[in-house]
Amino acid sequence: MPFSLTWLPQVLLDAGLKVAEQPGWRTRGRGDVGPIKGVMCHHTAGAKTGNMPSLGIVTNGRRDLPGPLAQLCLGRDGTYFVVAAGRCNHAGRGNWQGFTAGNTNFIGIEAENTGHLSGDKADPWPAVQMDAYRRGVAAILKKIRANAIMCCGHKEYALPMHRKPDPTFDMTDFRSQVSAIMAGIAPAPTIIPPTDSANRPTLRRGDTGKAVETIQTAVGVPVNGTFDAATEAAVRQFQRDHGLVPDGIVGPRTWATIAG
Ligand SMILES: [Zn+2]
């Protein structure tokens, strides 16, 4: 028997988001959820490379905590992975707006991020991921007819206070942007232009040609003219090393740095 949250993918798709349903998600859960009152935002504290390296842990759990650990994962490229339609172990003890049964009353979203703001593991949030985070939360809140205040960060809900640090971004800001999306007054999402001022094409996974070879030479991977997984990983690393948003896409800023 499927659990209650089978509406999740369609609500996200209707909001124009990328969605990947994971095998078995409809019947995955620690029993069913109760009445859904809100959404809780998390970060995975996972690896620094890859789009969604924590997907397996969120699905299956870890030694000290059985899975699933959230209904949704959000990759660095803004894709939502639908993991479970039932109850998940994401909240623990806490309180948000008087609701203390986090796992029963809140949908959990685990967004891929190391959770570090500085140092070797610093992981600036890609704009495309944050945009999808806000739009996904807005779509879910509309579906459950809740106000933006019913979106909380794990760090805001968790008790005792300071038990959890996630997510690293400012939740008050986040809620006001979610609220603007729900009201239909949000600015258009960040769109990367197809070429830069020197007419260099924006390149991403799957692209081919001479310009890709230039990128491959610059980031130090075998030159084969195809923007493959190894190229994308090297581009992300190059972007991190140069203080750029590590989205794995070579747009105007990354081109300027490479051509530097
Ligand atoms: Zn959390």
List the helices and strands and how they pair.
Layout: H1 8-14, E1 18-21, E2 38-43, H2 55-60, E3 61-62, E4 65-66, E5 72-74, E6 79-82, H3 102-105, E7 106-111, H4 127-143, E8 151-153, H5 154-157, H6 171-182, H7 210-219, H8 229-241, H9 252-259
Parallel strand pairs: 1-6, 2-7, 2-8, 5-7
Antiparallel strand pairs: 3-4, 5-6
The structure holds zinc ion.
Radius of gyration: 19 Å
Please state the second-level CATH architecture of the largest domain. 3-Layer(aba) Sandwich
Distance between the termini: 57 Å
Q: What small ligands are held by the chains?
A: zinc ion
Number of strands: 8
What's the CATH topology name of the largest domain? Answer: Lysozyme-like
- State the CATH class of the largest domain: Alpha Beta
Largest sheet: 6 strands, mixed
Structural class: alpha/beta
As residue ranges, the low-confidence spans are none
Count up the helices.
9
Oligomer: single chain
Helix content: 25-40%
The SSE string, one letter per element, is HEEHEEEEHEHEHHHHH
β-strand amount: 5-15%
